TrEMBL record:
Keywords, sorted A to Z: Amino-acid biosynthesis, ATP-binding, Cytoplasm, Glycosyltransferase, Histidine biosynthesis, Nucleotide-binding, Transferase
Record's subcellular location: Cytoplasm
Catalytic activity, EC: 2.4.2.17
One GO CC term on file: cytoplasm
Secretion signal span: none
Name of this protein: ATP phosphoribosyltransferase
Originating organism: Denitrovibrio acetiphilus (strain DSM 12809 / NBRC 114555 / N2460)
Record comment regarding domains: Lacks the C-terminal regulatory region which is replaced by HisZ.
UniProt keyword Ion transport present: no
Length: 209
């Protein structure tokens, strides 16, 4: 691997695919470098001296903050929840979704101090309700969050919504939107100085879209 290789952390799934599609379109990487059907976690583009790392969505900003990656792509929701100390360079405009409060349809959907909220986003959830003067207990779940109010584990959930069909199929309804999220290009604050010219070139190339 050549000196000053730019390391890029990508979240497994659709955001990674959209990012690579954008990078291919702008000539930042070459066709065939990243194989999404492979179990490999790293892919090196020798011609452009850029390495892609496939990581969990929640971990992208951690890899970037601690210098394992120079730049990364992550949803704004994850970026805010993590509180990572990184540069936020660009809004990439794809990966749109909403972080919403949802509850059981035809139930009491008013907020109260003793309620329990299930979510993957405890910090954003607590901050949101605190801004309304409501202090809640949060339960952190990693999947099937829609189930929790149905079985009585929580009063509400806070989760990402795109079409709302999953909520509807499970008898839930959106109550309020906390924030709208899209994919962001982020960078490490110290490594960006070492590889400033390369990273600046990538940012300007993406921004030109």
């Amino acid at each position: 691997m050549k000196e000053n290789c730019v390391n890029v952390a990508l979240p497994k799934g659709r955001l990674a695919e959209d990012t690579i599609e954008l990078f291919l379109k702008q000539g930042i990487t070459n066709e065939g470098v990243v194989d999404f059907n492979s179990r490999r976690l790293t892919f090196y583009d020798e011609k452009n001296n850029i390495k892609f790392m496939m990581v969990r969505n929640m971990d992208v900003s951690t890899y970037v903050e601690h210098g394992a990656a120079d730049i990364g792509v992550v949803g704004k929701d994850i970026l805010l929840e993590s509180g990572s100390d990184v540069y936020e360079y660009l809004d990439l405009g794809f990966g749109f979704c909403r972080l919403c409060v949802a509850g059981i349809r035809n139930s009491d959907l008013s907020y109260r101090h003793d309620m329990v909220v299930a979510t993957k986003y405890p910090m954003l959830t607590k901050n949101f309700f605190a801004s309304k003067g409501v202090f809640v207990e949060t339960i952190k779940l990693y999947g099937s969050i829609e189930l929790s109010p149905i079985v009585g584990l929580s009063d509400f959930i806070v989760d990402l919504v795109s079409t709302g069909q999953t909520l509807k199929k499970n008898g839930l309804i959106e109550v309020e939107t906390i924030l709208e999220s899209t994919a962001r290009l982020i960078g490490n604050k110290s490594m960006a100085k070492v590889k400033y010219d390369r990273i600046k070139e990538i940012i300007e190339t993406v921004e030109s879209v």
